Amino acid sequence: MTSDLQSGDRAPDVVLATSDGGTLTLAQLRGRPLVLYFYPKDDTPGCTTEAKDFSALKAAFDMVGVDIIGVSKNSAAQHAKFAAKHDLTIGLASDADDGVCAAFGTWVEKSLYGRKYMGIDRATFLIDAEGRIARIWRKVKVPGHAQQVLEAAETLARG
After folding, report:
1. Share of the chain residues as helix, strand and coil, in percent rounded to the nearest 5
2. Which of 57, 68, 83, 157 could form a disulfide with 64 if both were Cys (CB 3.0 to 4.6 A apart)?
3. Within 13 Å and on the Cβ side, how many CA atoms surround 72?
């Protein structure tokens, strides 16, 4: 597990399963900055709010040339339903085998009512056009987060 990723590190070149059934690698996305955010599950209150917040700001991210992809363990079909239900305009990717989450250190042990289990830790990575991590947000609190990421993306775009 690569949970010790820091700003300035090269982002792991993982394979993302896209909601349209295809795949892409982070290397294929180089040339444009990218927001890669990890969330626990489609259609839960916090995850829905976060996805809607990023979607609401997508035009502003587009203006500074930054793509957005949300990652969870949900299948491509579940992502498609989630996106349609909430009019999401951002990309969603599936990490069914936990490889992407493990590479970014977001597949962690959690605890709920004393029961321990493995799950996705809400985190966001702003990756520059060369594939280096420009900024990391761990233990994300949803309210205001998409706006914070946009401000960092605007700063990155200004160079």
Report:
1. 30, 30, 40
2. 157
3. 22
pLDDT tens-digit series, residues 44-69: 999 999 999 999 999 999 999 999 99
From its phi and psi, is residue 33 left (phi > 0), alpha (psi between -120 and 50) or beta? beta
pLDDT bin (cut points 50, 70, 90) of residue 96 is confident
Burial label for 46, CB within 10 Å (0-12, 13-18, 19+), is: middle
In one-letter notation, the amino acid at residue 64 is V
For residue 102, which of 141, 136, 73 has the smallest C-alpha distance?
73
Can 101 be counted among the known catalytic residues? Answer: no
- Of 26, 29, 35, 47, the active-site residue reads 47
